[in-house]
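explain this.
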Amino acid sequence: MQRVQGNPQVALLECTNPVRNKWRVRWDVTTDADGITSYMEQQFSHRPTVDEIKTLISGWISDRTAAEILSGFSYEGVPVWLSVENQSNYQRAYIQANLGLPGALPVTFKFGTDDAPVYRKFGTLPELEAFYTAYSAHIQDTQQKGWEAKDNIDLGLYSVN
């Protein structure tokens, strides 16, 4: 699977070599501000079934959704890496602070990037709760968009006359 540039009217399903039975499936056709059209493309050594096409595109959407959850969130203008481990640490800190456990606050997290780290200290429950709410909303919104994208795959566009 790769992103390639091409014609905006590209066929979404095309037999590119009838002798060798080579087929290409294309999706996510976009044209940028400079008029350059690109799309995702996957080659098959057979005519792909509708289920194969749906699995391919759904998998690509899932990968993009996971990547957006992982690296698409910023808090107070600073990127926050939402790995599963970090999410667990953030949630544990929030729960402990919410329960009023001794030593739960203040808590400091490393945000930013390896090259430009930002250490954010949360001293109060409302501060930590605002962060917890923001990153949780990012995850839920991103998941929702992924589900909607999968629900809106138009497999009717993948027919050959």
Notes: The helical segments are 50-71, 84-98, 125-151. The beta strands are 2-5, 13-17, 22-31, 37-44, 73-75, 78-80, 107-112, 117-122. The two ends are 24 Å apart (CA to CA). The chain has a mean pLDDT of 97.
